[in-house]
Amino acid sequence: MASTTTTRTERTARLCAEAALFMRDYVLSRVSHDLRSPLNAIHSWAYVLDRKIDSADSAAQRALAGIRTGVEQQVRLLESLVDTTRAETRKLQIERAPFALDALIDETLDDVRSALADARGVSLAVEGVPTGVTIEAGRERVAQALWLLLAFAAESGAHGSTVTLGVSATPAAAQFELRWQASLDLLSDDTLPHVLEPFARSQAREPQDVGRFPWVLALCQRVAEAHGGRFEAQPLVQGETALFTLNVPSGGV
């Protein structure tokens, strides 16, 4: 029993570390994208001003040169630090192989119950299993994404609540739909047990734009995209039913 507990604790720590890694790179991608647009605008307007300002005005020319230099330094910083760091997860490698979907779901549910759900008094229910389906995909990556979704739901699930995982699967694809009533205030309740890091939980409480999702779930998006599938998340609203959808096509069809 002690060995099993240790193994699960180590696996939980590894899964949390993976989630944090992908969240970091997702944040860096947002930073890179959001900074490049204003930097490009500043650079363009500097050239416009250059044509308007008297070339004999040395002070104005020095100011323009300083603006251009600052923009170029920021672009180099993005390229050398932000983009290079992101390369670690930009192209997610998966090893496709056939596996029984039902076994993966059972194992993942057990891991999430052991890691957090039982301690929080949150029940995990599954619909659509057994499927009897074998799909060809990256088993470990699919398990990571599914674990993260369930763990996140348990993080924001009230004591006595139920997180429902709906499974729809054929040999061509597996689709997971996660529903629960989101109690976002629980994400920052330090009196409760947690597995996800504080920054991730804090950011998840912020208002979400349509089509965006909590940063900590970036791994789920990357796993879906690597398989040619999709990950969708409705904006989280306090006290309302949340819905996440993970679609993973099979490579064997």
UniProtKB/TrEMBL annotation:
Molecular function via GO: phosphorelay sensor kinase activity
UniProt EC number: 2.7.13.3
Cross-referenced Pfam families: HisKA (PF00512)
Keyword terms of this UniProt record: Kinase, Phosphoprotein, Transferase
Top-level enzyme category: transferase
Top-level lineage group: Bacteria
InterPro entries associated with the record: HATPase_C_sf (IPR036890), His_kinase_dom (IPR005467), HisK_dim/P_dom (IPR003661), HisK_dim/P_sf (IPR036097)
Catalytic activity of the protein: ATP + protein L-histidine = ADP + protein N-phospho-L-histidine
Domain Histidine kinase: 30-252
The protein, known as: histidine kinase
